[in-house]
Specification:
With 288 residues, the chain is an alpha/beta fold. It has a single domain, classed as Peptidase S8/S53 domain (Rossmann fold, 3-Layer(aba) Sandwich), CATH 3.40.50. The longest helix is centred in the last third of the chain and has 22 residues.
């Protein structure tokens, strides 16, 4: 759920799999046009890091929120308080459509509101109750403000940003005691950027923020689910790996505490342990 996607970008062509199943807009215009850039960058991260994911694009915002391209992460992440009614409405409708029409397994939300929105909360609750895993960006205001909504809600995966070495980003909100403060790489992420922003036929751009850590977390979850399905195809699980509880259990296994954030890195995890231990720990976490 973002600002659409630049479907003409050369990075989205030339592979044998369908890049995305459907793109739909809730604000008019063409969902395959992204004059903002943020949505293309987020989608590019997921498509770069996954090979077995069908992506659905929901366009819920557009250029008029993104006058300064360099500050797009900040603009997209936090809306005025209270949130603009049209964005709250489009987000609510888009999440409902993703659940009832697309039947998605995961939803990636790289933005947040200062205040809770009842309609969005209800739709997210319905998603999670239906087994859909919801990821949301924590916020980029450091210690000045706390997590935004929907990342602040229970059962939503609140994603913080870290460097490639797992060091916390300065713009993360403060970690919350007695909760998991998941963080993944979100610093200097190089991903697709629309051609209309670079005045040439598509390109790449480095961006940092919890907005971009969020699709990385989505990709890690997708990878781990596929890994489990491949290694244990006939296993019957008490906790479905492809569920909110299942992904939480998997992330908890992978997490390494750094500065009170729970750093998740597949590279670190698979280097630290032998496969036999990894599979045994996964079996214990999901089957008790």
């Amino acid at each position: 759920m973002d600002s659409g996607i630049d479907s003409t970008h050369p990075d989205f062509k030339g592979e044998d799999r369908i890049k995305w199943k459907e793109a739909k807009t809730w604000i008019g215009g063409d969902p395959n046009v992204d004059t903002c850039g943020h949505g293309t960058h987020v989608a590019g991260i997921i498509l770069e890091l996954t090979k077995s994911v069908d992506l659905y694009i929901g366009k819920i915002t557009e250029t008029r929120m993104c006058k300064d391209k360099e500050q797009i992460a900040k603009v997209m992440r936090r809306q005025p308080s209270p949130p603009t009614p049209w964005l709250a409405l489009t987000t609510t409708k888009a999440i409902n459509h993703a659940r009832t029409q697309w039947g998605v397994d995961m939803i990636s939300l790289s933005f947040g509101f200062n205040e809770p929105v009842t309609g969005i909360l209800k739709e997210i609750d319905d998603c999670i109750n239906a087994g859909i895993i919801v990821f949301a960006a924590a916020s980029n205001d450091g210690g000045n403000l706390s997590r935004t909504y929907p990342a602040r809600w229970d059962r939503v995966f609140c994603i913080h940003s870290a460097t490639g070495e797992g060091n916390k980003a300065s713009f993360n909100p403060s970690p919350i005691d007695k909760e998991y403060n998941f963080s993944v790489v979100g610093d200097c992420i190089n991903s697709t950027w629309p051609s209309n922003s670079l005045n040439k036929a598509g390109g790449k751009k480095y961006m940092s923020g919890t907005s971009f850590a969020t699709p990385v977390a989505v990709s890690i979850a997708a990878f781990m689910i596929a890994y489990i399905q491949k290694k244990k195809p006939d296993q019957i699980w008490k906790i479905n790996p492809k569920s909110p509880k299942g992904v939480k259990a998997i992330f908890q296994l992978m997490a390494d505490e750094r500065d009170k954030y729970d750093w998740i890195s597949p590279q670190r995890y698979f280097k630290a342990y032998r496969e036999a231990k990894i599979l045994a720990d996964i079996d214990h976490a999901l089957n008790g």
